[in-house]
Please model this.
Amino acid sequence: MATVLVTGGAGYIGSHTCVALLEAGYEVAVLDSLANSSAAAIDSVGEIAGRRPRLYVADCRDEPALDKAMAEVRPDAVLHFAGLKSVPESVADPIRYYRHNLESTAVLMAAMERAGVRRIVFSSSATVYGEPDLLPVPETAATRPANPYGSTKLMIEQMIADVVRADSRWSAALLRYFNPVGAHPSGLIGEDPEGVPGNLMPYLLQVAVGRHPHLPLYGTDYPTPDGTALRDYIHVMDLADGHLAALKHLETSPGQTHTYNLGTGQGVSVLEVVAALRGATGHPLPYEELDRRPGDVPELWADPGQALRELGWSASRTLADMCRDAWAWQSTHPQGFRGD
Model:
């Protein structure tokens, strides 16, 4: 079975994807700076899968560390999750986001080229679309990111596609996922954001365990049925399965760049998520209504049909599943990995 190097593999989506890879028989190594993650996640991945990935603690901008990992692991492909990912942070500090995300990918791909590794699955985002002209959003929709985070994702997509066009030995899958939530059903790994969460469900879960008094609800006057923003929430294990399907597809499609939406194809409002999580946690989850947040769009959900047609992948887990599994994680790790 093939060997895969996973950058950012100790993070939220990366760790869940490592479980899926290991359970599918892949050999897995992780390169992660641990700046926004914990080595405990890798221990838990090993507990779930019965095999612990090898961990290289390094930044993707560290050329010697990348060369060392490539030489020792000799991967057949790279799954690239590493990067900064907060929309509000990117709006407040765009230079940091452009510098970190673009440089880390360029340095990584140069190291891959030196090692002769030319298959990459990139963790992109639906934020590349900005405010869409039509819903659900297909991969052919116009890309006009509404924030610097989304702009860095789109620039990286363009960088990767240019490399593939320049050298047909390369192949790439660009996975534009929508709103990952949930956790592994074991409750052993889950989302553990550094600092105050910028996303809805991790913030609500921290309200449930008493880390915050209430949810700041940004925007109740959107042109939506209940006035709150609509998003396409996808279970993180469905997302992990999508990465596995994309990786397998690259093994038979050299010289091509594939772009896929990974979502459920359904829009769910903030208030609907609050209600579902109240049911899963048994907590009231109070919220405070505030003005809209810069960089947010009113509605965004996927047309995931291309992933079904080409990869045979579709999301199968429900919002109730997402809330149940997220609570299994947060209720047993109220302070995240740092509290273990």
